[in-house]
Amino acid sequence: MLQPQTAVGRKLNAFAPLADNEIAFLASLQRRRRRIRAGAPLADADWKQRQACILERGWAYSYKILPGGERQIFQFYIPGDFIGFSSVLLRRCEHAFAAVTDIDICEIDSASLTGMMLSGRPLSAAILWAAARDEAVLEEHLVDLGRRNALVRTAHLLLELGARLQLVGLANENGYQCPLSQSLLADALGLSPIHVNRVLRRLREVGCLTFRKGAVVYLDLPRLVAIAEYDGSYLDQDPAPLAVARAAGVRTR
Amino acid sequence: MLQPQTAVGRKLNAFAPLADNEIAFLASLQRRRRRIRAGAPLADADWKQRQACILERGWAYSYKILPGGERQIFQFYIPGDFIGFSSVLLRRCEHAFAAVTDIDICEIDSASLTGMMLSGRPLSAAILWAAARDEAVLEEHLVDLGRRNALVRTAHLLLELGARLQLVGLANENGYQCPLSQSLLADALGLSPIHVNRVLRRLREVGCLTFRKGAVVYLDLPRLVAIAEYDGSYLDQDPAPLAVARAAGVRTR
DNA sequence: CGAATCGTTGAGGTCGCTCAATCATAGTGG
DNA sequence: CCACTATGATTGAGCGACCTCAACGATTCG
Question: Are B229 and A115 in contact (CB < 8 Å)?
Fold first, then answer.
């Protein structure tokens, strides 16, 4: 059975306390467990079938390759995140997924998942909340690319990742382990890897943050937050009313 | 009653033919009709209540203002689009909305809407499709900002708007009426208004497109598509399986 | 007619890019 | 154990895309 101390459990619990049977129900949706090697793509075939999964261990990302070969990374996924969830709910297949580190994913039966979303369980509200948060993250990412310079943008991303990791117990107020290469950061931030390197050096020189050997360490968190113009409120919002309405027993037809 | 020749009707029909009673049902969800002046914001209060509406006439946009006063525009809305729909479904309130031109909007009863989404009507599949398309547009927008230069980015946006307008009968293969100022374009494209001006001049000089006095005219569509690396396939995708599943009568609990 | 808004153009500066080289680390096969 | 390779981090030099500042023309509206 899925323990609340798993990443997903912790994350959803952070939104609203879930009864044991809800956690158990989520566990019952889980199917095959798979391990994928660092750098490997998550097979396209999976997503064509609208497969969704929960990332249990390691980091992954979604991206798109342009005709010219450039890569744009949309999102980084950390333990407890749903991967491909919006593909199931909304059917999108514009982007690909790949593993940053070795990862463990747990497939979700997508028919049961959509069924559950329609059932009005408290769990479905929690999951819609998570989906809404992912949307907000994406929009904030768009703002980063459009209207924030490289320094602010980078600091912003690193703080956001820290906040998300903290929710699942993988970060504290001092920092976190981060397996992202400067090249991955660059493709997420819309920068060149070389410039990412310089921005990180700059953050180190001004005494805000270090990022060496896979470890992000905050040196001066308040100043970092100031530099990044960071307001993490977009990460914890209210629940999604659709599932709430259904959970409240709204009759519709 | 809502005629199929309304913008929404045309748009949803482009996805899948909707029976008359579905169109009628959509019409029955519509409440108060309002007119908003060009430049005016759509009152915050509306969205706090998770109000959604259909844009019937004119153009609007969603945006966010940064601490430094910069503006990032997320989406432009054209007739037939749902505004604030994802706020209802997913509860987001990070961004604001404003009218580009004078607009007519038709409010939707949000309780009935969420109820309808859970009911499994064919209409709900069509609406989820529209929501998925909006998501895809947002992701493409993110790619624009991250990995395409000003020329490509601008051409891409103008082509996308043309394709969307064509779906509701407001554009043809020669061009369309576009009320966006260079300043609005700039805030969507993450550029300065001055640079937008130069990019538009450039597109005109190379004989691809003119944008003068509110009219976008294609001069050399194939070349424009090539310059923009434009592939409009993200605009018409398959339906969303959630509503489809429910419509097919999947029992879940 | 004055005010406001938008579009247009020039000049100069800067942020972030490309190209190129060096160094560190880890893995691999001989 | 040691080349040999591959990957990633780091740094410098030079360049170009896009920005800012400033000015001016066109249009609209009260």
Answer: no
> Strand B52-57 relative to strand A215-218: parallel, antiparallel, unpaired?
unpaired
Interface test with A, best of B47, B116, B143 (most A CBs within 10 A): B143
Are A19 and A123 in contact, with CB atoms under 8 Å apart?
no
Contact A94 B136 (CB under 8 A): yes
What distance in Å separates the CA atoms of residue B98 and residue B39, rounded to the nearest whole number? 6
For residues A82 and A130, the answer to whether their CB atoms sit within 8 Å is: yes
Distance CA B66, CA B84 (A): 20
String of b and e for B46-85 (b: at least 16 CB within 10 Å)? bbeebbbbbbbebbbbbbbeeeeeebbbbbbbbbbbbbbb
Is A150 in contact with A191 (CB distance < 8 Å)? yes
Task: Say how far residue B203 (Cα) sits from the centre of its chain.
Answer: 24
- pLDDT (tens digit, 9 = 90+) per residue, A183-232? 999 999 999 999 999 999 999 999 999 999 899 999 999 999 999 999 88
- pLDDT tens digits for range B199-223: 999 999 999 999 998 999 999 999 9
CA of B150 to C1' of D16 (A): 13
